[in-house]
Automatic annotation (TrEMBL):
Keyword S-adenosyl-L-methionine recorded: yes
Superkingdom of the organism of origin: Eukaryota
Keywords tagged on the record: Autocatalytic cleavage, Decarboxylase, Lyase, Polyamine biosynthesis, Pyruvate, S-adenosyl-L-methionine, Schiff base, Spermidine biosynthesis, Zymogen
Active site: S65 (schiff-base intermediate with substrate), C79 (proton donor), S238 (proton acceptor), H251 (proton acceptor)
Protein name per Swiss-Prot or TrEMBL: S-adenosylmethionine decarboxylase proenzyme
Source species: Cajanus cajan
Classification of source organism: Eukaryota, Viridiplantae, Streptophyta, Embryophyta, Tracheophyta
Length: 343
């Protein structure tokens, strides 16, 4: 297995649970002790490097990306050659001991830069879906797997969802929320240099991370957010942001030849997502960018809002696709590349 660089593209898993009596479990999954979390992460093959919490959730920076733990929801995002799906069995097991049962599962990822370096079950989307089908309990019976295409075969969006409850029309929810997952490659090399540390800088990963957050303008994306950041040695950066019960997260692999950065956040459809998108583009100036928005309802102007924000910054929309997933809602997948490039 020849590995030529670090795989920045993350795998992302979101699991929701329910308890018979939610009032009895106000902390729910947040009561999981650190040893149990470490065992889950050992199965995935990554470790915790930093952690913060607020009254809504706990956010962990991992050696390979991030983990968010809410009372009845867990989100794990890991890159490199981690085996993310191996976390499902131990998580179901530990949640069961807290009186919680799995009710929803969503797995997403982009297209790996080094697919041949991935271990089972991440060897192909077919293998991942078979593993998910065999691993998640039968009560999650509404299932769907799909690869959302783009014009370029090297950029597609892989989605699997499974839910135990009958899908319903989310328009009845009070607020339309979206999750935005952005994957960027071919970062501007001058901007990417800001994610390298100086040799023997004498700083800790936390203090070097804080400096990168400020120097790059990442702290201006959401000035309200509490940021937990970490700089790897000699390069690489991860951060988690907390703003009430909304998270955001950024991970950067700045090495030339396989540079990659991701940005993910939750937001309300009624908020202006333009500021966030413009800041993200300005921080990384990517050659190619994919933006996937998952919304608990249908918003027909989602892709126009996204394109209107990023196109004036020199990116051109090359493709867009939309699909519906049980209980996850509608997913819009758009790809952009710098106007100077032809794709
Ligand atoms: C963990 S970070 C960010 C992860 C994120 N998914 C990404 O790749 O964009 C990955 C970057 O940190 C660097 N790095 C340095 N030490 C590392 C370590 N011990 N574990 C993981 N990555 C490390 C990698 O070379 C890479 O540039």
């Amino acid at each position: 297995m020849a590995v030529s660089g670090f795989e920045g593209f993350e795998k992302r898993l979101e699991l929701h649970f329910f308890g018979d009596d939610p009032a009895m479990f106000p902390l729910g999954l947040r009561k999981l002790d650190f040893e149990s979390l470490e065992q889950v992460l050992e199965a995935v093959q990554c470790t915790v490097v930093s952690a913060v919490g607020n009254s809504y959730f706990d956010a962990y920076v991992l050696s390979e990306s991030s983990l968010f733990v809410y009372p009845t929801k867990i989100i794990i995002k890991t890159c490199g050659t981690t085996q993310l799906l191996k976390s499902i069995i131990p998580l179901i097991h530990y949640a069961h001991h807290l009186g919680l049962t799995l009710s929803f599962c969503r797995y997403t990822r982009g297209s790996f830069i080094f697919p041949k370096a991935q271990p089972f079950p991440h060897t192909s989307f077919k293998d991942e879906v078979s593993y998910l089908q065999d691993t998640i309990p039968p009560n999650l019976c509404f299932r769907k797997a799909s690869i959302m295409p783009s014009k370029s075969s090297s950029h597609s969006w892989h989605v699997f969802t499974a839910t135990s409850h009958v899908p319903y029309d989310h328009h009845h929810d009070n607020e339309l929320l979206f999750t935005m997952e952005i994957c960027m490659t071919e970062l501007d090399p001058i901007l990417a240099r800001k994610f390298f540390r100086r040799a023997e800088d004498g700083k800790s990963g936390d203090s070097a991370g804080k400096e990168m957050t400020e120097v790059t303008g990442i702290n201006e994306i959401n000035p309200e957010a509490l940021i937990c950041d970490f700089a790897f040695d000699p390069c690489g950066y991860s951060m988690n942001g907390m703003d009430g019960d909304w998270y955001s997260t950024i991970h950067v692999t700045p090495e030339d030849g396989f540079s990659y950065a991701s940005f993910e956040c939750v937001g309300s459809v009624s908020d202006n997502m333009g500021h966030v998108l413009r800041k993200v583009v300005q921080i990384f100036r990517p050659g190619t960018m994919s933006i996937s928005t998952t919304c608990n309802g249908y918003t027909n102007d989602m892709w126009t809002q996204v394109a209107t924000a990023v196109e004036p910054l020199g990116l051109k929309c090359r493709s867009r696709a939309m699909d519906q997933f049980p209980a996850a809602g509608s997913v819009v997948f758009q790809t952009f590349s710098a106007r100077r490039k032809s794709v």
